[in-house]
Amino acid sequence: MYRRLFMGSLLAAWGAMIPACGKQPVPAAPPTKAFVREAFKFDYPASWTIDEKDMEYDPDHRFSIDASDGAFVRFAIYDPKLDPSKALALMVTAHEKNMPGASKSEFKQWGKYAGAGVTLQGKVRSVVKSTVRLFTFNDSKRTFAVTEYVSDDEKQQLTPGFQVVEKSFQVNK
């Protein structure tokens, strides 16, 4: 009798666990704040901070959002329109210096916008395994350049925040 009860309980427990096997929890989208400027707007995780102390900080043209001590999203907005492919090539060259031997993969869409993008994966300064996503696109007057940087150790945790920024980014007309 005891054996039958034990086996029944064990089988019930296994049955409850089977649907969850192999699935990893997907982090929920974090609470957000809005960053609104005349030319664009987007949401970002409320726990992230705009780096207003950066010497190059200009909320309409150049700024970063710090996701952690090392991870960030950086925006550069250029009023003269630039060729997105040429701007991207310059960005890639600069990052490859810090990530020798990094793997590269191209992408053409960031949020709602078509443009030119490259993902670099490798070790920054031969030490920290990281992912850098670089993307450029034009609207009718400007060029937008986006850099996302995250160490592989923080990637799973911070990806939902990067997605919030990407999916909510909108150029104002």
Tell me what the structure shows.
The protein is of the alpha+beta class. The protein has a single domain, classed as Protein Transport Mog1p, Chain A. Helices cover 28% and strands 39% of the residues. The strands form 2 sheets. A 7-stranded antiparallel sheet has the order 3-4-5-9-8-7-6, sandwiched between helices. The longest helix has 17 residues, at 152-168. It is globular. The protein starts with a helix and ends with a strand. The relative contact order is 0.18. Residues 1-21 have low confidence and may be disordered.
As laid out across the biggest beta sheet, the strand order is 3-4-5-9-8-7-6
C-alpha end-to-end distance: 74 Å
Poorly predicted segments:
1-21
Quickly give the structural class.
alpha+beta
Helical residue percent band? 25-40%
CATH class (first level) name: Alpha Beta
Q: How is the main sheet built?
A: 7 strands, antiparallel
Domain module tally:
1
User: What is the CATH third-level topology name?
Assistant: Protein Transport Mog1p, Chain A
User: What does the radius of gyration come to?
Assistant: 21 Å
